[in-house]
Amino acid sequence: MKKPSDIGPSSSSFLAVGLPVKLSLAMEGRKVVHGSTLLGWKEPAWLICEWPSQLDWVSGLAENMPCTLSYLRDGKLVGCRTEIRGVVTTPVPLLFLAYPRQVEEMHLRQYPRVSSNEPAVVSRIASRGKDRGGIAPADHVGGLVKDLSIGGCRLRLERVPSWMRTGSSIHLEFELPGVGHVTNLTGMVKSIDKAEEDNVIGVEFQFDRMEYIEYRGWGGSVRQAVWRWTCQKSGEPVLY
Predict the structure, then answer these.
(1) Euclidean distance between CA atoms 64 and 49, whole angstroms
(2) Could you report the per-residue pLDDT of 156-173, keeping only the tens digit for each?
(3) Sign of the CA dihedral running 92, 34, 86, 15
């Protein structure tokens, strides 16, 4: 995890209407954390948040009570210190917070992740005890690798097949531009985000020594190839 870095509190850089946030307060000697939604702001005066539906602590709130607002964005934990400015209970319960003077970002990803746009083939892995001799055409689906790290990737699929679920094991085949063609790389589906025009699948790599790569110029394992390629593209030093 990288050291937190400060960013200026510009509304265009860290605020968005409808942004899911976490509110952390110290009440009665203990820390409480509840989810909310950012509804708007007036720079540099205040933020306005949806009243957390599970809360019933109006009597415990006090003006100028310290509060921390945080959320996740692009692999970073974004947070800022603020304080209670007031509450409104009718006609809609709302919570007003002071506009932050400073915002901090902390990178959460362990490995560099870079954008990609390479064609990929995703294949179903047969369960133990089933015939592995042949795979039907329905057990393949095509798509694009949208981003890539040594830990996994995001895939944009033409369609999400009926057999694909969170936790499904798959094989991946795709190109590392300028390096080689990766085949038989095992992955586990971690997330499935279906939309009308887009299907995005989050995959975690599981290097099991069954994967291989057809190299162009130099040798090594698939894991090393992915690591070197992502480091070169992201500008990170290649220490692997």
Answers:
(1) 16
(2) 998 899 999 999 999 999
(3) negative
Going from N- to C-terminal start, the domains of the chain cover 5-107, 114-234
Does the 114-234 domain belong in CATH 2.40.10.220? yes
Element (H, E) at 226: helix 222-234
Is 78 in contact with 72 (CB distance < 8 Å)? Answer: yes
Closest CA to 40 of 56, 68, 21: 21
Return the pLDDT at 27: 73
Where does the pLDDT of residue 1 fall: very low under 50, low under 70, confident under 90, or very high at 90 and above? Answer: very low
Q: Which two structure tokens, joined as six digits, stand for 39?
A: 């509804």
Cβ neighbourhood burial of 178 (10 Å; 0-12, 13-18, 19+): exposed
Phi, psi of 103, deg, nearest 5: -125, 140
**Radius of gyration (Cα) for the chain, nearest Å?**
23
% of the chain beyond a pLDDT of 90: 29
Q: In one letter, which amino acid is 37?
A: T
* Contact criterion met (CB below 8 Å) for 84 and 65: yes
pTM (two decimals):
0.53
Give the CATH number of domain 5-107: 2.30.110.10
Q: What is the pLDDT of residue 3?
A: 43
Tokens of 174: 């795709």
